[in-house]
Amino acid sequence: MSIKPATRISQVTPSMTLAISAKAKAMASSGLDVCSFSAGEPDFDTPTHIKVAAQRALDAGKTKYGPGLGEPRLRELIAHKLRTENQLNYTAENIMVTNGGKHSLFNLMMALVEPGDEVIIPAPYWLSYPEMVTLAGGTPVIVATDGSCKITAAQLRQAVTPKTKLFVLNSPSNPTGRVYTPSEVQALASVVIDMDLTVVSDEIYEKILYDDAVHQSIGSINGDVLSRTVISSGFAKAYSMTGWRVGYLAAPLDLIKAASKVQDHSTSNVCTFAQYGAIAALEGDQSCVEAMRFAFAQRRQVMLDRLNTLPGLTCPKPEGAFYLFPNIQETGMNSLDFCNALLEEQQVAVIPGIAFGTDSHIRLSYATDLPTIEKGMDRLEKFIYSRQ
After folding, report:
1. How far apart are CA 138 and CA 155, in angstroms?
2. Scanning 5, 28, 116, 294, which has the fewest C-beta atoms within 10 Å of its C-beta?
3. What are the tens digits of pLDDT across the range 27-58?
4. Within a domain: residue 52?
């Protein structure tokens, strides 16, 4: 007898990021020297004061079930952060603590999207967006962007139909590192109001910005936009807390109540003592964030300079996050073949662009140390010239 999974599972594509990262780790475990530019995870340890706070919480017995929406102090701090840093008029009741930023988005999709609903997703996109929509019974509407990798107000307006339920905005972007300017955000906000859309703004990389880039949260434009806005974020990227699994959703109260029902019947509360680490992250010295951002900026420049000397590859300078998204079209290879060959021949792990909705690109993460970047770029150079 075979057990047949639900039909909806067959409609979901496995994560290529996780698959390639797992393959790279397996190769490394077998003794191969692998340079991995695949995972979107800072290589820094979690700052000491955050770890100490979690240890103290353990010692204080913070090991029991907690409130489903999150520890009250953490919700208050998140709301304060959003008010003061992002000009978003939220209170603690508008905040829901989730098991990482990804979980906040999944909760949202399950609480908001119904069968037949359309969700507009600009490409390139983070690979889990369309899969979450599919699992919720909705239809992902992928909008291809130009070389800027950013959807325009005109494209958004054109993509809207009577079935449109949600628009997904991600800035700074995974996989491209592009950041929407305040004027671009303003233009998109106007469409959101005109077309009466709901927008979810994924702002997990908001603190990782370079040069003169400015992060503008779409809900800060005015009250009309805020009433249609959902914020997804977390502590993983800025504070190097990927394994802690603490994220959050900020939204109008009715939607928070709906999403909390999803969480109540799936995971219940987020790990209690991990939330005390997140409290320390918000209350403590923010110099740790700046130190990591400064290191990322150095790594970005080294990798970008090396990349743009290679024939057949072109890459714009990202304004945020920690990814490069070069175009490989001139190599004559599709992204999956390129990545598989690079991993097999030179033991360098990168992610094929097809996972993000475009087969003409690859994604490289520079969230690793400079010696690994230099060694990996040497190998990439050998790979490119071996095909000239």
Report:
1. 20
2. 5
3. 888 888 999 998 889 999 999 999 999 999 99
4. no
Taking residues 129-157, what's their average pLDDT? 96
CA–CA distances in Å: residue 153 to residues 74, 83, 118, 186, 195: 35, 26, 18, 9, 11
Token pair of 29 as six digits: 């475990």
Burial annotation 93-118 (CB, 10 A radius, 16+ → b, else e): ebbbbbbbbbbbbbbbbbbbbeeebb
- Say if residue 68 is exposed, middle or buried (CB neighbours under 10 Å; 0-12, 13-18, 19+): middle
For residue 218, what are the domain limits? 64-283
The terminus-to-terminus CA distance of the chain in angstroms comes to 53
Looking only at the bridges linking them, the beta strands covering 348-349 and 35-36 are parallel
Q: Which phi and psi angles does 326 have, rounded to 5°? A: -75, 150
- pLDDT tens-digit profile of 347-375? 999 999 999 999 999 999 999 999 999 99
E-strand stretches of 235-306: 247-250
Same domain, yes or no: 243 and 307:
no
Contact 166/201 with Cβ under 8 angstroms?
no
Per DSSP bridges, beta strands 199-202 and 164-170 are parallel
In a shared domain, residues 83 and 24: no
Selection from 66, 126, 127 nearest residue 97 by Cα: 66
Backbone angles phi, psi at 168, to 5 degrees: -100, 125
15: number of Cβ within 10 Å: 15
Length of the chain: 388
In the block, residue with structure tokens 């590859």 = 313
Rounded to whole angstroms, how far apart are CA atoms 301 and 139? 38
- For 147, which DSSP code? T
Report d(CA 133, CA 139) in Å as an integer.
Answer: 6
**Amino acid in the structure at residue 102:** K
The residue behind tokens 């000491």 is: 48
Are residue 220 and residue 143 in the same domain, yes or no? yes
DSSP output for 188-245: HHHHHHHTT--EEEE-TTTT-B-TT-----GGGS-HHHHTTEEEEEESTTTTT-GGG-
